[in-house]
Amino acid sequence: MPRLNSIAELEIHRAQVIERQKKQHKVISLCAGTGCEACGCKDVHIKFVQELNARNLSIPVKLTGCHGFCERGPIVIIRPANTIYFKVRPRDCAEIIETSIVGSGVVDRLCYTDENGKPLPDEHDVPFYKDQMRIVFGLNGLVDPMEIDDYIAQGGYSALAKVLSGMAPKEVIEEIKTSGLRGRGGGGFPTGRKWETCANAKGEKRFVICNADEGDPGAFMDRSILEGNPHSVLEGMLIAAYAIGSRDGFIYVRHEYPKAVRTFANALAQAGKYGLLGNNILGTDLSFEVGINRGGGAFVCGESTALMASLEGRVGEPRAKYIHTVEHGLYNLPSNLNNVETYATVPHIINNGADWFTKLGTKGSPGTKVFSLVGKVNNTGLIEVPMGITLREIIYGIGGGIQKNKAFKAVQTGGPSGGLLPEGMLDLPVDFDKLWDAGSMMGSGGMIVIDENSCVVNIARFFLNFLKDESCGKCIPCREGIRYMMDILERIERGEGKMEDIDTLEEMAHTVADTSLCGLGSSAPNPVLSSLTYFKDEYIAHIQDKKCPAGICKELIQYLIIPELCNGCDVCAKLCPTKAITGKKDEVHVIDTKLCEKCGACLESCPSEAIVRR
Predict the structure, then answer these.
(1) What are phi and psi of 412, to 5 degrees?
(2) Which residues pair with 368 in a beta bridge?
């Protein structure tokens, strides 16, 4: 691996890599993201290699990062034709090779099919991908994250070369300011302004820090970027270091992300050998090193001051932000903190220009955003869309609608601190300001779809319980306020609530939001406040009617058998863990409600839909 001593040597090396890759007429690209690994992609990889060797075929099988459509993994793409296969198993490998590698055909049965059953072999025709704008996430399916040359062949480090060869640090900051890039970690603060303040702050040295402490339930965007394209994050950090005059950087990454740590550590090692890290990068005056710090998984450490306290080896607790971390951050020195997606966006802005970026998305929120689309939606996974796209386009277009044709109830955006938005908000354009005005937030990009069989009181209680457990306990409003709100929600769930509880809940929510020390506490009431705004009737039903409209809250429901529909198959009785269901074979069965523990096993197993939940 040669050290590249100048920008010219980088470009020569890039040309050599591209020329070498041109000789590869076909490539098997296999998704090795965490989701596909869980579905057995390693066995698929082994089988592909065995089958190719048996045929003496020299075809690369490239293990890439997450392709996004996690619900359909393992995913295989034959390039350059972009033929995409889903749910591939080892037994499919020989047929794929014979049909799409030796031949030029398509294995229809492994393709995505449209509503008419027509196979869609081209990746770009699949509805899940068709309406996306994959810029930050786009290289995930193209590069091997463990091979720096793959990234270089796709234009990697050309943005760094551009700033080092022709842009002053102030020009770089101005370019980012003009682009309007807002931090993708949740706060949405203008990135260029943050860089400028940090560059102008007084201090012997300054730090560039990457926040990879992604802790939202159901969110895995940053992890997938780090696992699939770590060099894009590193390149963004290098450009930030050049702009603000830093020599030292850190990435704070969750301990639960071992694969992301491996890929990023490998990226650091390879970049160091190429002369893209360390002293006099590419023969210039820029010198920069990056250390990896593994966090213990505390949600509050995603907050900037808590993260920096943890980096210093102290307890990860936040402090008041009247002194900004860009001026007094890590070790009381100027520190620039951005998250993974923000840094990964920077090289695209530098390469394509701020004007290009501002034409994407909306005026106040330019660019694209990566979301983890999960919950009761047909197509789950990671998506990247332009800001301004509506919730309906995401859920019913890219997401393919609600599972089992159930009715849509709400979508939770912004993770546990976000809000629940109802059906009437489906045409809301998704950007930082619109979501905030609607009572929710962008957060880091979690998006959980909820159907008619979900109870909003139960959901609000679930997220609040998560935040209660994750509160560091430093300030009283957060520590005691969330706990008190939890007590009220649990009473309402049990059917023991009173109408005055709703007013108390609202008052407590506003108090916690207004008086908590950090963002975790101030945003924690969002699920409660938004659900009270849009679904207050469900709270009232729990309190006044002692009923859970969605049929979820155990104390307020019971399972019954409709005699006219029961065929006496006995399946429910065999599955019932408490023997609450009795009846002779081929005769109508009954449920003893005193013995029933309301687990729902009977409802899910009944073939004649004779069991109902009321």
Answers:
(1) -100, 115
(2) 386
Smallest CA-to-CA distance from 277 within 255, 292, 293 is with: 292
- Please state which of the ranges 198-202, 273-277, 427-431, 440-444 shows the lowest mean pLDDT: 440-444
Structure tokens at 460: 């609000």
CA gap 518, 338 in Å, rounded: 17
Under a CB-based contact definition with an 8 Å cutoff, are residues 251 and 222 in contact?
A: no
Q: Strand, coil or helix: what is 316?
A: coil
Provide the token pair at 241: 């270091």
Q: Any idea what the Cα angle at residue 516 is, between residues 511 and 520, rounded to 5°?
A: 115
pLDDT at residue 215, rounded to an integer: 83
Q: How far apart are CA 537 and CA 171, in angstroms?
A: 54
- Tens digit of each residue's pLDDT (9 = 90 or more) over 158-188: 999 999 998 999 999 999 999 999 999 878 9
Reference 502, options 453, 468, 457; nearest CA is 457
Whole-number pLDDT of residue 443? 83
3-state secondary structure of 112: strand
pTM: 0.93
Question: Which residues lie closer than 8 Å to 340 by C-beta, 6 or more apart?
Answer: 184, 210, 211, 212, 214, 221, 222, 225, 226, 233
Q: Decide if 83 contacts 112 (C-beta within 8 A).
A: no
Which band of pLDDT confidence, cut at 50, 70 and 90, is reported for residue 1? low
Beta bridge partners of 402: 377
Q: In degrees rounded to 5, what are phi and psi of residue 47?
A: -65, -40
Query: How far is residue 379's CA from residue 163's CA, in Å, rounded to a whole number?
Result: 40
Q: Give the whole-number percent of the chain exceeding pLDDT 90.
A: 87
Q: Is the pLDDT of residue 518 over 70?
A: yes
Element (H, E) at 78: strand 76-79
Whose tokens are 């099919």? That residue is 113
**Rounded-to-5 percentages of helix, strand, coil across the chain:** 45, 15, 40
What is the C-alpha separation between 495 and 547, in angstroms, rounded? Answer: 7
Placement of tokens 């970027």 in the chain: 225
pLDDT, tens digit, for every residue of 45-55?
Answer: 999 999 999 99
Give yes or no for a contact between 221 and 382, defined as CB atoms under 8 angstroms apart.
yes
